[in-house]
Amino acid sequence: MAPFYVMFDLDLWRYVSNDRGCDSQHKGYKLYCIEDLALLNLPEHWWNYLNNHGQGQAVKPPLKIKPILSWTPATQVFKDGKLIVRQRMPLEKLCVDILRRPCDTANLFQ
């Protein structure tokens, strides 16, 4: 599955991920199990979803996560008859790469 990005305060991420996870073979990424994210206070079964037939998909641990600090694009503003460079703002986000697996009520916790 392709990675996705989540806007997330990196100070908070450092608090949540402190002394958790293990290094990945991919630079900047760390691997986290579902229990490592307990401080986020997510809903009890956030890692899976089932339909009315008891079939669905679940996250296959570990989750590969990389914190990223980037900047907004450089843009200009027309003000008082001149082009003025707009101040760039930092963007804090997480790059999350997960694997999904099919599941049902019989194999949900495998």
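the 2nd protein, sequnce then structure:
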Amino acid sequence: MTVSELRDALRRQQQAYEPAPGAFDRLVRRRQRKQRVRRLATVAIASLVFGAALLVLLPLSDLDHGTAIIDPSTVGGLDVAWTAGVGDSPTAPIVHDGLVFVGTGSGELFALDARGGHVVWVGRLSGSIVSTPAIAGDQVVVHTTSGVLAAFDTACGSQGATCFPTWTGNTGDGAGSPPSVADGVIYVNAGDDRLLAFEGCSSGLCDPAWIGRIPSYGQPGSLVAPAVADGSVWTVLGTDTVVFPMRCDRVCEPTQRQFAGRMSIGPVLGDRLIVLGSSTGYVYGFRADCPGQCRAVWRARADAPTTPAVDDGVVFVSGAPGGGLAAVPELCRSAGAACDPLWVGDIHGSPTSTVVTTNGVVYVGSSDGNLYAFPKACDETCSPSAVVRIGSSAGGPAVWEGRALFVTAADGTLRALTVGGVDP
């Protein structure tokens, strides 16, 4: 091979290794695209991990809410979000930790999901549950007409499981009066002559820590929940208002007994008074810190009242003459006469539920099958802001996070009410 031929061969080989025009730019762009894809994938994975962490760390109530707060400006939009059947003669509901608890006349305690209304678990007891359950820490407590006080863990089951009581106590009471809880002690009436205090119960059969006792006159047991104020336990035994000390030995004598008519409603703690209702046409108020023998220092007219509510110095009394619901100042200069109401709201039918007030709205159920909602601040003659048809005699309601009301009815249903009827 000549020198010129060798030179030409080397030139051709050199040209074969030279990149085509623009090849380097295309290589750079491909690498940049790959880097962008990797960065986007990293961001997407980090977002998924962060979202999953939020679901684990935050409660559901902090993540939505699509439902509006129920107050005087929104209560007119109340509608039924869901309805659940719970059996015959349901009690008024109580809400705790996202669960709605309802007892029934057939002895069942239902725990339902507050958001969707499905049954989470159910407890079954002998006798009827005719009074509202009470929450004691992480337990829900019910009292049956067979004289059994029973406590269930609030998280005892799921997916409709049947639960059994953690502990029970024998009360000997056939009325099934409602329990109440204060400072870890569960108080419940038994017959017309005893108040029982249960404390420190954990499993099996539990005896009361102490018993408050008065003479029995053979009267029916009262369906009232005791209340604690100023170191004393107020209750109604038979038809008398009775006051016991919060702590005492095995058998405790009352410090006070009142005879202001035939008492049947209350006691309800106010800002300044203990409020109780009677079957004699009045609701009475007593000073919680009264020295010596207490006497009623306040009264308001009410025919067949249900349990009243007290909020910001005003007592909301059902069964008021000339209307269904009256707002009466907790302090008034009546000189022995009944206090004049600030306003009276008319309802049709007779009141059938405890009066409940929250977020500036006052609620009461009626025998005409409606739940009435009144603004707390109202004119002298007050019209309801909302009337929600329940379908039969309305009980309850219980309020959850200010966004949902739960109401039971005599037809054996539990309803959730929200603004616009959206799920809670």
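Residues 136 and 181 are 6 Å apart (CA to CA). The mean pLDDT is 85.
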